[in-house]
C-alpha cells in the first residue's frame, strides 16, 4: 500500500475492541513516522515542503474499499459461482475413489514385482545368474513384496 506522497504505510495497533477483544489496526505513512506530519512541522516552524499530512487509515476503511472495488469488478457473480461449483465438482474425489485408486496402484506394483521374481527364477534356471546373485535379488524383491502387501492390508 502506497501513500499519496509515495511512501509505504506501517501497520500499527490502533486499539482493542472492548466487546470482542479483537485488536484493530491502523496504517500510518512512513514519511510521517520518520519526519512528522505536515501539520506538526508547520506548528513547530519547520519546513513543510514534501511532507505528508494524510491521516491514519483504519482497517475497516481498507475492508470497505476492497468491498466496493470487488463489487465494481465482479459483475457476473452468478456465472462465476456456477463455474467455481463446476470446477469443484470436476476435481472432487471421494475417499472411496481415492482408496480404489491407491489399491489399484498397489496391485500394479505387486504384479510388477511378481513378474520380476518370475524373470529371476527363469534366469537362475537358465544359468544366466549365480545362486548367490539369485539369493540377493530374491531377498530384495521379497522385502519389496512384503512392504507392498503390508501397505495394502494396513
Can you give a write-up of this model?
The protein has 154 residues and is mainly α. Helix content is 62%, strand content 11%. It is built from 6 helices and 3 strands. The protein has helices at residues 30-35, 38-43, 59-73, 77-91, 95-125, 131-153; strands spanning 9-16, 23-29, 57-58. Strands 1-2-3 form a 3-stranded antiparallel sheet. β1 (9-16) and β2 form a beta hairpin. α5 runs antiparallel to α6 (131-153). The longest helix has 31 residues, at 95-125. The chain is elongated and about 100 Å long.
Structure at a glance:
It contains 6 helices and 3 strands, in the order ββααβαααα. The protein has 154 residues and is mainly α. Strands 1-2-3 form a 3-stranded antiparallel sheet.
Short key terms for the protein model shown above:
three-stranded antiparallel beta sheet; 154 residues; 62% helix; mainly alpha; elongated; 6 helices
Number of strands: 3
Largest sheet: 3 strands, antiparallel
Total number of helices = 6
What percentage of residues falls in helices of 4 or more residues?
55-70%
**Element order: H for helix, E for strand:** EEHHEHHHH
Detail the poorly predicted runs.
none
Topology:
Layout: E1 9-16, E2 23-29, H1 30-35, H2 38-43, E3 57-58, H3 59-73, H4 77-91, H5 95-125, H6 131-153
Helix pairs in contact: 5-6
Amino acid at each position: 500500500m502506497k501513500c499519496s506522497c509515495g511512501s509505504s504505510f506501517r501497520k500499527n495497533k490502533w486499539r482493542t475492541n472492548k466487546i470482542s477483544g479483537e485488536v484493530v489496526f491502523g496504517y500510518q505513512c512512513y514519511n510521517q513516522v520518520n519526519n512528522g506530519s505536515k501539520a506538526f512541522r508547520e506548528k513547530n516552524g519547520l519546513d513543510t515542503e514534501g511532507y505528508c499530512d494524510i491521516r491514519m487509515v483504519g482497517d475497516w476503511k481498507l475492508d470497505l474499499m476492497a468491498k466496493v472495488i470487488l463489487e465494481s469488478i465482479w459483475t457476473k457473480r452468478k456465472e462465476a459461482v456456477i463455474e467455481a461449483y463446476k470446477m469443484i465438482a470436476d476435481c472432487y474425489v471421494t475417499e472411496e475413489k481415492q482408496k480404489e485408486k491407491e489399491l489399484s496402484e498397489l496391485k500394479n506394483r505387486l504384479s510388477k514385482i511378481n513378474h520380476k521374481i518370475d524373470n529371476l527364477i527363469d534366469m537362475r534356471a537358465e544359468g544366466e545368474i549365480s545362486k548367490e546373485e539369485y539369493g540377493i535379488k530374491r531377498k530384495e524383491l521379497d522385502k519389496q513384496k512384503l512392504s507392498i502387501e503390508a501397505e495394502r492390508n494396513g
